[in-house]
Every structure is written in C-alpha cells, then in structure tokens.
Amino acid sequence: MKGILRCLVVAAFALVAGCGDGPDTTGAGMLPVRFVVDPQDYKFGPVDVGTVATATITLTNLTNRSARVALGDTTSDVFTFELESMDVLPSEVKNLRVTFEPNGTGAFEHDLDVHLSLTTGEATIAVRIEGRGL
C-alpha cells in the first residue's frame, strides 16, 4: 500500500507541478492531469544467472485525453523493456513488460524514464528497476 500511495503522490505531483506560477521545466508545460505508473520502484530480488524473471508495470491513463507514451534509455545488458502500446486511451491501462536476465552475480539497476505526451503538454515519470544476480 505504501508503494502505491507513493506512486500516486509522485505521479500526481509530477503532472501538476507546472500548473501554477512556478517555472516551466519541460518547455511544453506540465500536464494538469493524472497518469499512474505502478510500481515506480520494482525490485526483482535474487535471480540465478542464466534464468529470466519477468515483471509487469502498469500504465494507467486517468484522464479524458489519449496519451502517447515513449520510453527513455532502455539500453541495458540485463534488463529488457517491452511496451504493449505507445498509445494509451482515456481510462485505459497498458502494460510495460520488464525482464531481468542477470549475466553475473551482484546488484543490477536501471533508471527508466516514461515520457508522456498529451495535447495539453508533456511529463516524465521515473521508474527504478533493481535485481540481484546469484
């Protein structure tokens, strides 16, 4: 529950932060809408070298507008990312599939930016992925 609440608070803040008299940090304005990425911090935990673990991160559009989603840097030796669709319609949920295939022992991490674009502006939500190879 704590993770979901943090996700909602962070996403809501990120999307409405530019709606007042504050600076425009995106160049195109921030989105005065709600878009949820859950979870924003995923830990695969220990995974044996040579095996694959998968997880699903959901992207939920709680707005009345279609959103275009793009992923930031997906370059990784151990994590792969597969987006179900780049377009998320109003009230729709899409999946981002993440796989972890450790190529050695120890900790691995990746910070993935999920870029959102609507007719009202753009925003980015950061997602942290972690895993440990055994």
Tell me the layout of helices and strands:
Blueprint: H1 2-16, E1 35-38, E2 41-47, E3 53-61, E4 67-71, E5 79-83, E6 87-88, E7 93-100, E8 106-118, E9 121-133
- Secondary-structure element sequence? HEEEEEEEEE
- Report how far apart the termini are: 29 Å
The Rg value, from CA coordinates, equals 16 Å
Shape call: elongated
**What's the arrangement of strands in the largest beta sheet?**
2-9-8-4-6
Characteristic terms for this protein:
9 strands, mainly beta, four-stranded antiparallel sheet, five-stranded mixed sheet, 134 residues
Structure notes:
The chain has one helix at 2-16; strands spanning 35-38, 41-47, 53-61, 67-71, 79-83, 87-88, 93-100, 106-118, 121-133. Mean pLDDT is 78; it is low at 4-33. Helix content is 11%, strand content 49%. The protein contains 1 helix and 9 strands, in the order H-E-E-E-E-E-E-E-E-E. It is elongated, with a radius of gyration of 16 Å. It is mainly beta. Strands 2-9-8-4-6 form a 5-stranded mixed sheet. The chain has a 4-stranded antiparallel sheet with strand order 1-3-7-5. Strand 8 and strand 9 form a beta hairpin.
